Each structure stands twice: as C-alpha cells, then as structure tokens.
Amino acid sequence: MYDLIIIGGSAAGCSAAIYAARRNLNFLLITADWGGEVARSGWVCNYLGFDRISGFELANIFKKQAIENKSKICENTTVEKINIINNIFEIIEKSDTEPKKWQAKSIILATGSQPRKLNLPGENELRGKGVSYCSTCDGPLYRNKRVIVIGGGNAGMESALMLKDICEKVYLIEVTDVLRGEKIYMEKIAKEKKIVLMLKTKPLKIIGENKVESIEVEINNKKQTIKTDGIFIHVGTVPNSDMAPKEIAKDKFGYISTNKLCETNLPGFYAVGDVADLPFKQISIAVGQGTTALLSVAKYLESK
Ligand SMILES: Cc1cc2nc3c(=O)[nH]c(=O)nc-3n(C[C@H](O)[C@H](O)[C@H](O)COP(=O)(O)OP(=O)(O)OC[C@H]3O[C@@H](n4cnc5c(N)ncnc54)[C@H](O)[C@@H]3O)c2cc1C
Prior knowledge:
The protein is 24% helix and 30% strand. The protein contains 7 helices and 19 strands. The chain has helices at 11-22, 36-39, 55-68, 135-138, 154-163, 183-191, 283-302; strands at 2-9, 27-34, 43-44, 53-54, 73-74, 79-85, 88-93, 101-109, 113-115, 131-132, 146-150, 169-173, 195-198, 201-207, 214-219, 222-227, 230-233, 237-239, 269-271. Strands 1, 2, 5, 6, 7, 8 and 19 form a 7-stranded mixed beta sheet that branches. Strands 10-17-11-12-13 form a 5-stranded parallel beta sheet, with helices on one face. A hairpin with a 2-residue loop joins β15 (214-219) and β16. The site of flavin-adenine dinucleotide has 39 residues, from β1, α1, β2, α2 and α7.
C-alpha cells in the first residue's frame, strides 16, 4: 500500500510529486497523459521564470522534473474509480480487460477540467488555430484583429471586455435573447462601441483551412457568415471529477469542494488545481496548490 497516490501528471500533480519525492514519501503518480491542459495551452507568457514558452514544452519540463526527482510513475493510465474501504483508498484503472488496482492512505486528485465544447463542425480541428477556450492566455495574440466570443454568461462577457482593449472589434454571440450574469458587465457591454452584441444568434460551424477564417451562424432562421480571426468559446468547463469517491462533496458544477489546505470533506483526500472549486484556473495557481496539498498530506500522514 502507498502512503500517497497522486492522480494527474500536469501542473498540480507534478508539483505535488516533486515535493513528495523530496520528502521521501512512499508514493505513486498515475496519469493519463503528461501536461493535460498545460500542453494544450498554446503559448504561455504569464508563468514565472519564462518570458514565453509553449505549453507543450512547459509540460515536458514538468514531466522531466517529476521523473528526475525519482517519482514512481504509472503513465498512460486512466483512473476510473476511487472507493473507500476501511479508511483506505482503492484506486481502479479504466480498462477493458483486467483493471489494475492500487491502495493508498491518502490521495491528491489533480485531474484538471476540460472546456465545455460546443461540438460545432470545425471546432476540434481548429483548436489552437484560432479556436480558443482561454482569452486571458490567447487574447494578446489577436492584437488589432477581429474576434468572436461565444457565450453570454459572465465568462463570455468578461472575455469580450478584456478583448476589446486588444482587438479591433469583438462580436459577442449569445444563443438566447439575454445576457446572463452580473449587471455591471451588461452595462459595460451596452456602452462599449467596440463590442457588437449579437443575441438570438446560433453558431453553426467554424470555417477555415489551416486557421479560423469565419463562422456560420443562424439569426432569425437565416444563415449568415461572419469573417473572424479568432473564436473564443466560453460556455462553461467540465471538471474531471467523476472518478472521485461517491462520498466526496462537490459544488453544483461537479468541482470538488476544498478548503485553503486543499482538504476535502474526506480525511486523507485532497483536490488541487482545476478540478477543485477555485475561482481562477491558471498554471501558477495549480502549481502552488500541488505544493500546498503535499505539505498538508505530509502533516496528515505524520498524525496517523
Ligand atoms: C487553451 C488554454 C490556454 C491556457 N493558457 C494558459 C496560460 O497561458 N497561462 C496559464 O497560467 N494558464 C493557462 N490555461 C489554464 C491552465 O492550462 C490550467 O489552469 C492548468 O492546466 C491546470 O493544471 P492542472 O494540473 O490542475 O490540470 P491539467 O493541466 O488539466 O492536468 C490534468 C492532468 O490529469 C490527468 N488526468 C485527467 N483525468 C485523469 C484520470 N481519470 N486518470 C488519470 N489521469 C487523469 C491528465 O492526463 C493531466 O495530466 C489555459 C487553459 C486552456 C484550456
């Protein structure tokens, strides 16, 4: 049995692994891939220590550091379920054949989240080539360009307000007839000349050869094509938290409820980074949370 199993091999999980290795804990890191959303982040220009680095390269550095610190690793492995049996965690692999099982006294869940997709034709193919789910990260790439934001909630409105300072023009598309969110954002949007609000507009498909060129939408039952350089989709995120024990507390969106020590309602079970109920999702935050959780785990194990 392990003292600790870390699930997730990206910012939060690798950070926890480096600290666990340096504390000589008997631990295992299980991960489906290396780098998760970091590896898919395009250019990262806001992570301390690097002026500009590709997310893929940064993810490789995280992996290298975790391996060089002699972490015990089980890669290319997806966890399907975590059960609690007599205060011990049982981790079960997702497998069509005989699934592997492990046991641990404590868990750090660092499985991240994924952007909710619209599943439009062209969306997946042009992701990272004009289709983005993160305006904070990719907005600066569209200086003086024309962009579209899809989603009339707080995230979409925030994104449009941020992008209007960078881009030539921002179209904010919402499928219903109202924006949903904070009044202050709605008032700002209404006053802002660079933002064109398009309500009752249904996105149909994203068009482009090697990069986004336009989007087809439906307005009043009529199809229309809008030329654009970038499309920012903000229709929510989905946490990768289904495998957590059924007893765990989550918020209404499925993010795992945590306190500032990254503890959950289950003793010995910690959740960090994008899978936790944090207000902000960034690499530096996930890295810091991995550290916090590991230090909390070390205290927890000492107290046993
Ligand atoms: C397009 C885009 C651009 C971004 N740009 C930036 C940026 O410029 N700067 C910035 O700070 N942030 C950026 N972000 C946000 C940043 O990527 C996340 O905050 C960060 O990746 C969170 O790290 P994490 O370790 O919590 O999760 P993730 O990076 O999502 O990693 C999750 C890990 O868990 C593993 N995993 C998931 N499920 C399972 C399972 N069932 N079993 C085993 N392993 C599993 C995955 O394989 C992966 O290794 C961007 C996000 C996106 C989507």
